[in-house]
Amino acid sequence: MIWLTLSFEHVCDTVIINEQGQVLYKTNTPFRLLGAQTTTIQKIKPNGDHYHMQDQFEVLGEIEWHTFTSSKIRTGGTEVETKKFIPEKGLLGRTRWTALSLDLETSVVVLSRDDSSRMQVARFHRATLGIIGKSRKAMLEVSPEVAHMMDTVIMTFIYVEKLRRDQEDSPNGG
Fold first, then answer.
1. DSSP 3-state of 96
2. From CA 7, how far away is CA 119, in angstroms rounded?
3. Is the pTM above the cut of 0.85?
4. Is the CB of residue 74 less than 8 Å from the CB of residue 87?
């Protein structure tokens, strides 16, 4: 498995680091009093200059958050409404995109294959304080099977985890 650590559990403002300590992704959501907030997801850019050791990033995509209409995901020069990117499927809160299904549980986000195997390909592990057991930062566990589409996994995870957290934080939520 591939283990990615989040510097902060709130996925809209965090840094995502691999097991070697290399920053791979950064997210930022500036506060807006009016209008839709937009989360920018940046990805580390390969650096061919061995003398320039500072990390450089490029924008992978953006998520424009809407409350009463469908949010929008922009990446690779295209924009898609989230209701089309991740349409609802069934009564159990399962949603679908490409070859994967997202199971939004009460405490974690799980990504699994959308076929008869339902094989888990990614799972979020929330941070723990260490009151019982060892403390740890929030982590995303990703199967090597989907490493080739890591950017899509990250974008989707950020979207779904924010929805889960918003639902949990709402007065009627978990």
1. strand
2. 27
3. no
4. no
Closest CA to 141 of 109, 93, 168: 109
Q: Which amino acid is at 44?
A: I
> Which of left, alpha, beta for 108 (phi over 0: left; psi -120 to 50: alpha)?
beta
| Token pair in block for residue 172 | 């009627």
* Burial class (CB within 10 angstroms; exposed 0-12, middle 13-18, buried 19+) of 53: exposed
Q: Looking at this protein, which amino acid is placed at residue 78?
A: T
pLDDT per residue, tens digit, the chain (174 aa), is: 999 999 998 999 999 999 999 999 999 999 888 888 999 999 998 777 767 667 889 999 999 999 888 899 999 999 998 877 776 554 344 444 444 445 555 567 887 776 777 778 888 888 888 787 788 899 999 999 999 999 989 998 898 888 888 877 777 755
Instruction: Report CA-CA distances (Å) from 152 to 91, 117, 158.
Output: 25, 21, 10
27: exposed, middle or buried (C-beta count within 10 Å: 0-12, 13-18, 19+)?
A: buried
